[in-house]
């Protein structure tokens, strides 16, 4: 198992940051995100916290560095370049925090990536308030975010590939079984392969976390200058720039032509 | 607004998303947490989406993923190692 941790402070209030989180796609740094849907959403009647479950479809493929470590026939055949991400969030507006968790739904046996974030309202310092007198400057409000990403490869551990698309799951399991019989995993240390795969995940995540921060900042800036309407207008332009006026769905189901444009990305 | 995985649900999704953003920013974040302005729209959107997910075989994958909460996975992992 490997971990990646990052802390960051946004110069925006907690309500703005939490709104931006739900509104963050599309933005100029999220061209790899094809679709977003809300699977479930409710306010817990006891805690008044808002629970949301979303599913994102992203362009991503298994990094070539990982593909090289897999037995032939595994990973390569059905690498459609798209993957589903499940995202759960809980917002507590009274206490000023939001918890998020995103995980890949496929290839979890090769590499399971779970990203957790905790957004928290940063109490605007009382000293500063006193110094400023009647400080009503909302700009001074800040929100911190702690990001933790966990990487776990179970390759060669019998857990196999987790779940890929139903119709192909059998093939992949067979491929790994066969590879095991042929001594593929015994010729290389299983732990070594797992460690290598996890490290590739970590290195790709550094860049992905940075990009997602940039994306959030753009959405936040649009919120500040134009409110929700400003964000929506920006989105419309991003969407056209990324996919053309027809929207992304034409591409979603047209597989095989995404090779040149695939962004090798986070898988989160 | 982000597109839906099911093109046929895009219109209703956009209506729901717009409703949610308004409710979230104007009511929920300001303390009016018990209101449910968008319930009807969400029901319609969900109806459209669930059908699409089923047709594409994503629904069962989703059920599996939702079941595996992180604590379960950790426990399972610790047992194995």
Automatic annotation (TrEMBL), chain A:
Boundaries of every PRELI/MSF1 domain copy: 1-228
- What is one GO cellular-component annotation here? mitochondrial intermembrane space
> What organism is listed for this UniProt entry?
Penicillium arizonense
Q: What is the protein's given name? A: PRELI/MSF1 domain-containing protein
From TrEMBL, chain B:
Oxidoreductase listed as a keyword:
no
Q: Which GO terms describe its molecular function?
A: phosphatidic acid transfer activity
A Gene Ontology biological process noted in the UniProt record is: phospholipid translocation
InterPro entries with a match to the protein in the record? MDM35_apoptosis
Gene Ontology cellular component list: cytosol; mitochondrial intermembrane space; nucleus
Keywords, comma-separated and alphabetical: Disulfide bond
Pfam families with a match to the protein in the record: UPF0203 (PF05254)
Family label:
Belongs to the TRIAP1/MDM35 family.
**UniProt name for this protein:** Mitochondrial distribution and morphology protein 35
